[in-house]
Amino acid sequence: MEDINKAQLIISSKTYSCEEIDQKVGLSCDEAWAVGDMREIGGKDHRNKVRKGKMIDNGWIINSNLSGKSPLEHHIENLLIKLFPYLQNIKELSNECDVQVLCISWRDMGATMPIFLDKKFIKSIYDLGARVDFDLFTAGN
User: Fold this and answer.
1) How does strand 98-108 pair with strand 131-139?
2) Phi, psi for 106 (deg, rounded to 5)
3) Residues 64-118 pLDDT 10s
4) Can you tell me the distance from the alpha carbon of 46 to that of 64, in angstroms, rounded to the nearest whole number?
5) Least confident stretch, 38-47, 62-71, 122-131
6) Does pLDDT of 38 surpass 90?
7) Residue 109's domain spans which residues?
8) Domains in the chain: how many in total?
9) Are 31 and 102 in contact (CB under 8 A)?
10) Which of the 8 DSSP states describes residue 103?
C-alpha cells in the first residue's frame, strides 16, 4: 500500500448554512453538508470502515487538492497558502463556528508516521482560529 495524505479546513456551524459560510469567508467550499444530511463517517477510502451518520450541524470543507502521494506537510502548506487571503474572515467565524484543520494520513501497518509542523504552520493555524485534528490510519499489506 502506498501512503496517502490530505489536509482540509472544516468549518461547522449549527446556525450558518454553507452558503452563508461561503459569503462570510469569501470563498466557495469544495464539499459541504447540511443539518440532517446522511454522510459517510470514517472516510471514503476502502481501508477505513465507513458508516453513515446524520449530521447535527452544517459543514463546509476546503481541500488541499494535492496528490495523495504528496507529503502531509506539503498538503498543510498548500492549504494554508490557499486560505491566507481569507484568514481574517475565517478568524472572525471561529468565534461562532468550529474551525479545524484536519490532517489525514494512511500508512502500512508498522510504518512510522513522523509528523513535522513548522512553526510558521502552527502560527498560521492559530491565526485562523482553528484547532488541529490528526487522523492517522494504518492498514495491513
Assistant:
1) parallel
2) -110, 135
3) 999 989 999 999 999 999 999 999 999 999 999 999 999 999 887 777 777 888 8
4) 21
5) 38-47
6) no
7) 4-139
8) 1
9) no
10) E
Block residue for cell numbers 440532517 = 36
Q: Could you give the 3-state DSSP secondary structure of residue 73? A: helix
How many helices (H) and strands (E) the chain has is answered by 4, 7
Phi, psi of 75 (to 5 degrees): -60, -45
Rounded to 5 degrees, φ, ψ at 6 are -160, 160
| Confidence band of 138 (pLDDT split at 50, 70, 90) | confident
Hey, which residues does 64 pair with through a beta bridge? none
d(C-alpha 71, C-alpha 84), whole Å: 20
Q: Which of 62, 88, 52, 81 is nearest to 7 (CA)?
A: 62
Query: Residue holding cell 499489506?
Result: 141
Residue that the C-alpha cell 462570510 belongs to: 24
Supply the DSSP symbol for 85.
G
pTM of the model: 0.85
Q: State in Å, rounded, how far the first CA of the chain is from the last one.
A: 6
